[in-house]
């Protein structure tokens, strides 16, 4: 006879696992119903929606996202990184949108890092799963799991089919603990818009969660930026208060500039947290308007420099010593959604100097989930 | 240190190259199509017209390479998604719809 108190640790772990699995299966059953409902409802709404006479844009569910493969060599250690990131978009009329992005990321390294066969695994992460209500120009309400709107990189440049350089900046982990996402409510929109400038804002509160694929920290914060229309210059700042364990303030300031008459793209960001601060400055230029052979006009050159300064011992997903890095990249665009990417970087720190190479391909896809309505 | 100076120089060259090209340039970016949906907004008594292409250049092209190949039947959904991501106004959304799915 066994009493509860007599159970060994292995038995207890097995029982907990069984109960977790049962709970997960139960949740899946519920989700199956929700997913089916979510896919059916927009079709019903779409059928009733009066078509906009001024355009032919359709509002059907979509799977968009990116497929990519990157061969990375960091300090002599090669890593194969296949990845696919589907983005599911399900509109309910023209004011409510259900959207989610899930990342499937392969990470394969040689057994002994520099020798032996490649081994590894595919990791999965739900980046966001949110319901948006596009109330009006001034307010859009987002509920669910959302990407923490902190700084320029985390808000806009994380998808690998968008960013110019595949390696994230050193200070990209500032303001996104613990999972890069928040669980809760976010308000965002346009505070004021004139022909000369636009002021945008975001405010959010995230609850602490340890649920699988919904991990988030208790945080509150916001972001605001002003975009000057004619020089195409954006200046913004983000603030976040991390409200669990040790309460800390995180701050970011950023600039984005695309001069109107050229293909230059300049972005820069400064981030500060308790364990360090740093900045990155990136310029990218496409040769599309140069008098050169047409195939060369599809080339984009990218340069980035960055410095990170460790504070209070560093850590918390940040380097423990001061680090500097520069990167230089060349991308080739076959089409707007298909490109070859390549880059070389060199990082300097008191621990190690290293060369970082990247080469690969990225492709952005868009697949309608519903056939076109016959006219 | 020398390497760092080299990196800085590289960035400077890219920046200056871009500015130089801007100075030499005569024309603005190519037009996607002939239809230019516009909206009129007033500012200090002056009336200005904003086109869908300008809205695209000002917002979308900060991250995406124009022109974008998106099927018309999903344009509404994609622009709803981007309206949330890029914090666009309702007015900009309407102009983009007319521009990308005329």
Structural summary, described in words:
The complex is a heterodimer of chains A (375) and B (102). Helix content of chain A is 13%, strand content 52%. With 375 residues, chain A is mainly β. Chain A folds into 2 domains: 7-49; 59-368, Porin. In chain A, a hairpin with a 2-residue loop joins strand 11 (264-273) and strand 12 (276-286). Chain B is mostly helical. Chains A and B meet through strand 2, strand 6, strand 7, strand 11 and strand 12 of A and helix 1, helix 3 and helix 4 of B.
Topology:
The complex is a heterodimer of chains A (375) and B (102).
Chain A: H1 9-48, E1 62-74, E2 77-92, E3 96-110, E4 118-133, E5 140-147, H2 151-157, E6 181-193, E7 197-207, E8 219-228, E9 233-242, E10 248-257, E11 264-273, E12 276-286, E13 299-310, E14 323-335, E15 338-349, E16 354-368
Antiparallel strand pairs in A: 1-2, 1-16, 2-3, 3-4, 4-5, 5-6, 6-7, 7-8, 8-9, 9-10, 10-11, 11-12, 12-13, 13-14, 14-15, 15-16
Chain B: H1 2-24, E1 38-43, E2 46-51, H2 52-58, H3 72-86, H4 90-100
Antiparallel strand pairs in B: 1-2
């Amino acid at each position: 006879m066994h009493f509860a108190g007599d159970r060994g640790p292995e038995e207890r772990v097995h029982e907990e696992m069984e109960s977790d699995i049962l709970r997960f299966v139960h949740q899946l059953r519920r989700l199956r119903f929700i997913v089916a409902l979510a896919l059916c409802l927009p079709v019903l709404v779409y059928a009733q929606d009066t078509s906009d006479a001024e355009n032919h844009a359709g509002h059907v569910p979509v799977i968009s996202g990116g497929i990519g493969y990157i061969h990375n060599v960091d300090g002599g250690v090669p890593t194969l990184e296949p990845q696919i990131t589907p983005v599911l978009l399900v509109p309910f009329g023209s004011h409510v949108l259900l959207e989610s992005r899930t990342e499937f990321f392969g990470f394969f390294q040689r057994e002994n890092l520099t020798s032996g066969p490649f081994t590894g695994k595919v990791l999965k992460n739900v980046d966001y799963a949110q319901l948006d209500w596009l109330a009006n120009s001034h307010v859009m309400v987002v509920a669910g799991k959302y990407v923490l709107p902190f700084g320029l990189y985390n808000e806009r440049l994380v998808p690998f089919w968008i960013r110019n350089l595949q390696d994230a900046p050193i200070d990209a982990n500032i303001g996104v603990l613990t999972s890069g996402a928040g669980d809760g409510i976010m308000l965002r929109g346009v505070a004021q818009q004139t022909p000369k400038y636009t002021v945008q804002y975001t405010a959010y509160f995230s609850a602490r969660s340890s649920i699988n694929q919904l991990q988030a920290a208790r945080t509150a914060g916001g972001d605001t930026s002003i975009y000057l229309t004619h020089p195409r210059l954006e200046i913004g700042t983000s603030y976040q208060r991390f409200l669990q364990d040790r309460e800390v303030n995180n701050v970011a300031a950023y600039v984005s500039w695309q001069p109107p008459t050229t293909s230059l793209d300049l972005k820069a960001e400064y981030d500060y947290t308790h364990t360090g601060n740093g900045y990155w400055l990136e310029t990218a230029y496409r040769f599309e308007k140069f008098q050169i052979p047409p195939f060369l006009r599809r080339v984009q050159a990218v340069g980035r420099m960055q410095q990170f300064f460790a504070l209070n011992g560093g850590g918390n997903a940040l380097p423990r010593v001061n680090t500097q890095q520069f990167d230089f990249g060349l991308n080739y665009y076959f089409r707007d959604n298909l490109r070859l990417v390549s880059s070389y970087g060199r990082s300097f720190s008191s621990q190690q100097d290293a060369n970082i190479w990247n080469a690969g391909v990225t492709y952005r896809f868009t697949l309608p989930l519903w056939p076109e309505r016959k006219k | 240190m020398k390497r760092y100076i080299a990196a800085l120089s590289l960035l400077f060259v890219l920046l200056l190259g871009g500015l130089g090209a801007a100075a030499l340039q005569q024309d603005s970016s190519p037009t996607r199509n002939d239809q230019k949906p516009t909206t009129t907004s007033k500012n200090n008594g002056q009336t200005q017209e904003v086109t869908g292409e300008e809205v695209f250049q000002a917002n979308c092209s900060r991250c995406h390479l124009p022109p974008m190949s998106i099927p018309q039947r999903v344009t509404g959904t994609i622009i709803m998604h981007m309206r949330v991501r890029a914090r666009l106004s309702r007015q900009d959304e309407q102009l983009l719809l007319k521009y990308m799915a005329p």
